[in-house]
Amino acid sequence: MASLISLFNRLLPFATPGTPLVQDLVHLASICTLLYFAPQIQEWVQQRQQQQEQEDDEYLENPEEPQQDHQPNGVEPQMIGDEAETNQQANDDQLPPPIDPQPQPGDVNAIEEGEPGPADRPHQTIAAQRNVGAKKAKSLARKDQRRAYHEFQRSQGEAQRARDAAGAAEREAALAQERARRKAREDAIAAERAREREQRRVAESAEREEDNRRRELVVEIVREGLASNRMVDLFKVARQVGGDVDEEWVERIIKASAGLLGRKGNVFTMITSTGWAVRVREDDMREFYARALTATEGQKEGKTLEELTLLLKGILSDTPS
């Protein structure tokens, strides 16, 4: 056991501090030399292995021909009949192909028909495949996958373009029908809107004409009533006009008519709060004041507003216009 430990310590120069310095330096130089020449040694070993593999491949591709059996005296036995011919054909089949003669200069056919070059030898391809590392193999596999993916995408795109081209005519026809249908619908909508606008215009025109007719009728009725009776009931005027006309509308029409209300000389035309259009002259007011004084003479209380209204109404009704 002690001898084994001593041998182990000698193999490990830096294991114990008691080793001589010269021995440590020798071991150090040996280790440095070994590390320096280690790559060359490894390369030489790999080359030897590759060479050995190539020789093995060549041996597998071109096996040695088996030696024919010979008689001890060197004389071959002669075959008689069909057996001799059969053996001769078998021997001819087993013989290697004849060696091609050396091609003459200028003989192109002979060069082309010659033995395959180094690039065509299968054993070199096999050796090259064996030299491919794991990382290189993975890189080649990824490239093949990408190439297959791009090829698949390209084929899909071409198929889609072919389908699009095949259905282009049908789509164009369908789009043309859709455009025609939309245009027909838009034309129908435009025609309907135009008809509605025309109807609305006609209705508005008729309404304006009817409104103008009513206005003219109101003014005419009030003017004739003031000329004949000097008093016109606006409620009766609204009933004569008809429709949805009321007293307020008649009053607005009378006020809007120029020259119908107001004072002209000694005549004053107005609309009362009770809905009457009244035309009063200066003589009518003198008579009204005189009758009012006579009626209230000797009375402590005067006349009420209603009584004065009835008195003025009687004066306007009795007095001719």
What does this molecule look like?
With 321 residues, the protein is mainly alpha-helical. Among the domains are: 118-166; 204-318. It contains 11 helices and 4 strands, in the order αααααααβααβββαα. The chain has helices at 2-11, 21-61, 82-94, 108-112, 122-131, 134-166, 168-228, 234-241, 247-256, 282-296, 305-318; strands at 231-233, 262-264, 267-271, 276-281. Strands 1-4-3-2 form a 4-stranded antiparallel sheet. α7 crosses α8.
Number of DSSP helical runs: 11
Shape: rod-shaped
Structural class: mainly alpha
State the distance separating the first and last CA atoms: 168 Å
List descriptors.
321 residues, mainly alpha, 4-stranded antiparallel sheet, 11 helices, rod-shaped
Q: Short summary of the structure?
A:
This protein is mainly alpha-helical. The chain contains eleven helices and four strands, in the order αααααααβααβββαα.
